[in-house]
Amino acid sequence: MTNNFGRGTALLGGLLTVSALSLFGGGVASAQDPLIGKTYEEATAEIKNWTGKPVRATIVGDGLELEKCIVSAWRKDKKTGKFFLSLNCGNKIASAKDSGNSLASPEGRAQKRHDDTVDWLHEHPEHCLEMKAQHPDWFKKPMDGCEGVV
Q1: Within this chain, do residues 40 and 86 fall inside the same structural domain, yes or no?
Q2: What domain range is 70 assigned to?
Q3: Domain count, the chain
Q4: DSSP H helical segments within 32-124, as ranges?
Q5: Could you give the CA distance from residue 138 to residue 150 in angstroms, rounded to a whole number?
Q6: Nearest to 138 by CA among 122, 149, 125
Q7: Domain shared by 86 and 55, yes or no
Q8: How do the pLDDT tens digits run along the chain, 150 residues long?
């Protein structure tokens, strides 16, 4: 009797493990998407490298210049080589005048933390110099808040 209980427990444990891995594995796959999260400018350059043609399928919001809009979804028409892009052009944080992410949302809170950090680095540029000395690879691309560091 205990032997069947042990097998059942092992089977249940295995199923729970597989379920958990499939839940977490989905996030990894979407995190490696080649276009989602990129700006329209970056995505169109990538698509042109693939000899495809970018097409604006949907646009939500109007707070950003087109080049700065973020790709939120896309699909490719294999026959025509067209990439249909869904763009989010909303402001990163909502204000009394403009739509955007709420500070109550994870995206809004993350953007607020980012903006606060950028403001702090602008007020304390000596930290940018210190970071560049310790981590020069961080500065291969422009770093928000440390734009003037050479």
Answers
A1: yes
A2: 35-90
A3: 3
A4: 40-49, 106-123
A5: 13
A6: 149
A7: yes
A8: 555 555 544 444 444 443 433 334 333 444 589 999 899 999 999 999 999 999 999 999 888 899 999 999 999 999 999 999 999 998 888 888 777 778 898 888 988 999 999 999 999 999 999 999 999 998 888 888 998 877
Q: State the Cα–Cα distance between residues 7 and 65, nearest whole angstrom.
A: 60
Query: Residue 22 CA to chain centroid, in angstroms?
Result: 21
Claim to verify: residue 56 and residue 24 sit in the same structural domain: no
76-105 in b/e form (b: 16+ CB < 10 A) is eeeeeebbbbbbbbbbbbbeeeeebbeeee
DSSP single-letter state for residue 69: P
Same domain, 115 and 68: no
Entry pTM: 0.54
Give the Cβ contact number of residue 115 at 10 Å. 14
Report the half-sphere exposure of 36 (CA within 13 A, side-chain side).
10
Asked, for residue 95, whether it belongs to a domain, the answer is no
Token pair 């949302």 is found at 105
